[in-house]
Amino acid sequence: MPKSSLALGNLRGFTILMVVAFHSFTAYLGSQPAAQPLFDSPPYSWRANPILDSERWFGFDLFCAFEYVHLMQLMFFLSGLFVWPSLLRKGGKKFLYDRFLRLGVPFVVGLYLLMPAALYPVYRVSAAEPSWAAYWSQWMGLPFWPSGPMWFLWCLLALNIAAAVLYALAPRAGGFLGRLSAGAGGDPSRFFIALVSVSALAYLPVSAVFEPWQWVQFGPFAFQPSLAPLYVIYFFAGVGVGTHGLEHGLLASDGALAQRWPLWLAGGGAAFLLWIIPTALIVNGYGVVGLQIVADLGFVLSSATICFALMAIFLRFATSRQPLLDSLSEHAYGIYLVHYLFVVWLQYLLLGAPLFAAAKAAIVFSGTLFLSWATTAAMCRIPIGARVMGGRRRELVRARAR
Questions:
Q1: How many independent structural domains does the chain possess?
Q2: What residues make up the domain containing 345?
Q3: Helix (H, G, I), strand (E, B), or coil: what is residue 262?
Q4: Distance CA 262, CA 184 (A)
Q5: Contacts 24+ apart (CB under 8 A), 378-385
Q6: How large is the average pLDDT for residues 194-216?
Q7: Is the peptide bond prior to 43 cis by the omega test (within 30 degrees of 0)?
Q8: What's the 3-state SS for 327-357?
Q9: For residue range 325-354, what is the model confidence (pLDDT) as tens digits?
Q10: Cβ burial, residue 370 (10 Å; 0-12/13-18/19+)
């Protein structure tokens, strides 16, 4: 397997670790309200932070803020890398069939089975009648269907459909996107500047209307309106890079991006400060003219710089097979699908435990990772589970069969 593919597989596994850590730590953020919000009362803030523990540590706020500015953008970028080659190999109909099976079916199962089970503890924290029947009655009375992390699946499916439509209407569009990223292997800065510029043009007008953490939901379909344009941009940026080829462009294992990883790492830290400092001032009531624009530009710059820094580090240092990371990458999708169930229940069960926030967070993170990983591995032993979640496992099985 090419070095770039190995590095990206390892990065994919690492990204899922960060997703699990992010959700595991949200119960212990110092910036959250002191009291658990009521399940049936607007604005239903438990959708973002389901469980709130009395034990807090500000270090988790910094970690979650750092992940917030880039994590989903990176996931959409990585998701777009293999879209156009897959379209060329399978054709539009087969591609869409596979996408509906891999994204649409888990979205429906996760939405209507996993999410009610995962969010039951949120209701129990403040419920006078903690029975499942009472919970279900309040659940059905909500003006929306809570989707939790399942929102990513329907958004990604929609973007895959858009890519398939583009392939059908303009088959040469992939080549055009690939040419835009063709020179990035020798000079990533041009691609970076283009990505930041387009992101800023899309993000700044929308961020003037919607807060970065604001959600909009229509039935079961939730999304963040201020960040949605960035997700589209990063996805199609990934499509362009993947079309040109991983070993010949931006993600070449011996390219300029990998070689200059210290500069991207330092730039990521500086860009994060450019966002977090003005954002903290705004939250604390400092209404300086133009401060919001600085924060918005810092957000866009942080997203791109940190994504580039992570890719550079993995391209430089993670281009070999590691059994643990191989397994994590193979089961990453399944871990994403089921992890929220374990996160919320473990946070709930630890509410009364006489432990510091760091200890509780460590238990939730390690317990969720182990249980999600084991659940996914078990489900991949079933043919339909392997078909939906075990991408690499399926490839290996087919290769052996030949």
A1: 1
A2: 3-401
A3: helix
A4: 18
A5: 379/334, 380/331, 380/334, 385/334
A6: 91
A7: yes
A8: HHHHCHHHHHHHHHHHHHHHHHHCCCCCCCH
A9: 888 988 999 999 999 999 999 999 999 999
A10: exposed
